[in-house]
Amino acid sequence: MEEPLSVNVFDTIVGTGKSISGINGQFIFAQVIMDCLLRLKYTQTDKAELIDRCKAQYEGNIEELNNVLEFEKYYSSDKALLWYTRETFLYKTVNAALRKQDIHMIFLFREFISDIIHQSKCCPIKHPLRAYRGQRMSIDELKALKKMCSHFISVNSFFSTTTDDQKACDFLDPSNTAINTEPVLFKIDADPERVPIKPFADVSALSEYPGEYEILFMPGSIFRLESIDRSFHGRIWVIQMTLCNDDEHEFNNVFLFMKQQSGSGETNLHTLGKIVWDMGNRVLAEKYFKRFIEQLSSEDILLVDLYKDLGKLLSQTGKWDESIEWHQKACTLTKQHSLISRSSIDMESKSLGRSPTENTLY
Questions:
Q1: Strand ranges (DSSP E) for the chain?
Q2: Separation of alpha carbons 273 and 294, rounded Å
Q3: Is the whole-model pTM more than 0.85?
Q4: Beta bridge partners of 196
Q5: From CA 89, how far away is CA 68, in angstroms rounded?
Q6: Which domains are delineated in the chain?
Q7: Sign of the C-alpha dihedral computed for residues 119, 76, 4 and 28 taken in this order
Q8: Mean pLDDT of the 187-208 span
C-alpha cells in the first residue's frame, strides 16, 4: 500500500463567519461534490464514455483491455466489491481519480463507487474495532500530516485497512529503502455504534482476498488525527486516528451547507454544474450544463433556469455572443410556457362556462 495519501483538512479554529471558499473550502466541497454525485442518475452515455476512456488509457495493455471488456459485458452491482478487490484497472483508476479529485472521472465512475458503498452496507460491523494500514509515505507527506495533528481530515479515496496488525506490517517491506520515504503504520479506532459520517465495512467475505480481513472505509471518511509518533523501537511512524461520527458539532455548518447546495433526493447535472462553478471550474460547469441540455426535451421548463445560468457562466468567460444566445433562448422558452399556461387557463374557464376575466367572487 504505497499510494499517496490524499486528504483534506478541516480547521476547527476558523470562525463560522469565514467564506466557504476559505481555509476549509477544499474539505467542504469534497464532501459536497461526492454527496451530489452519488445521488445523480447514471446513464448509458456516461458508461460508454467511461469504457472509451479506460480503453484509451490502457491501449496496448492486453491484460487490462481484456479486463475492461469483461467489466463492460459482465459487471453487475452485486459484484462491486469483488471487482474492486481484484488487481485490475478498476482499483487503480478509481482511486487515482479520487486521490487527484478528478471530478469528471469520479462522475463517470460514480455508479461503481455507489455500488461499493451500498454493498458495503450489507457487511455491517457491530462492535468497536481497531484497524491497521501499513505503507511507505514520502517525507514531505509525513511532515504535512504532522501539522494536522488534533485536526479533522477527510480521506479522498477508498481507504483499505485490516484488523490484523501483522498483515499491515507485512506491507512495510524492510528491504524497501526508497529514497525520501518513511514506513508508517496507521492505527484507526472505529465505533459503529456512534454512527459514522460515512459507512465502513468488513468486506472480507466479498473480497477477492478473504484472508486479508479487510476493513474498507469509504471516500470522504472523516477522522480525527490524534497523534504521529515514532514506535517504541523507533523503526516506523505510528499514526493514530479516530473515525468521526455524524453528531460532531464542528460539522453542523458543513452538513447545512451540503443541504443548501444539493438538497435531498436525486440530483441532476444542473445542480452538479452549479457546484463545480462555485468551486471555480467554469469549463466543467459549462460541460455539465450542456450535457444536461442534451438530456432534456426542447420544451422542458427546467431549461429556462439552465439557459439563464449557462448565459451568465459564459459571460464570465468572455463568450459574450454565446451568452446572449442562451439568454435569448431563456426568454423565448419563458414566453412559450406563459402562452401555454394562459391557453390552459382559457380552456379551463370555458369548460366552467365563463370568460377567463370574469370575476365570480361576490
A1: 7-10, 129-138, 152-155, 159-162, 181-190, 200-202, 214-217, 221-230, 237-243
A2: 14
A3: yes
A4: 245
A5: 8
A6: 7-251 (3.90.176.10), 265-340 (1.25.40.10)
A7: negative
A8: 88
